[in-house]
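Design job #97: recover the sequence.
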């Protein structure tokens, strides 16, 4: 069981002159929990020397990002060839 810490009623923003709240937070809480789990697993695998194929962002000005993306896509295509 993973507690996302989202409020039970899900909505977080009270409205003036209305009894109900809006602004559900369960989706963002769940996505955050999932990505933190993925990040932790990736760190553990990298520490163990496992080669990780990560889709890098090319928006950060890293000249090697395109090469790493090409490598990741090549590996992905190799893995799904029979699917």
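Job complete. Output follows.
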């Amino acid at each position: 069981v993973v507690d996302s810490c989202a409020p039970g009623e899900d909505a977080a923003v009270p409205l003036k002159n209305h009894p109900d709240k809006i602004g559900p937070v369960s989706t963002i809480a769940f996505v955050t929990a999932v990505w933190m789990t993925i990040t932790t697993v990736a760190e553990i695998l990298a520490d163990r020397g496992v080669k990780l194929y990560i889709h890098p962002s090319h928006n950060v000005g890293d000249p090697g990002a395109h090469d790493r993306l090409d490598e990741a896509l090549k590996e992905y295509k190799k893995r799904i060839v029979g699917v």
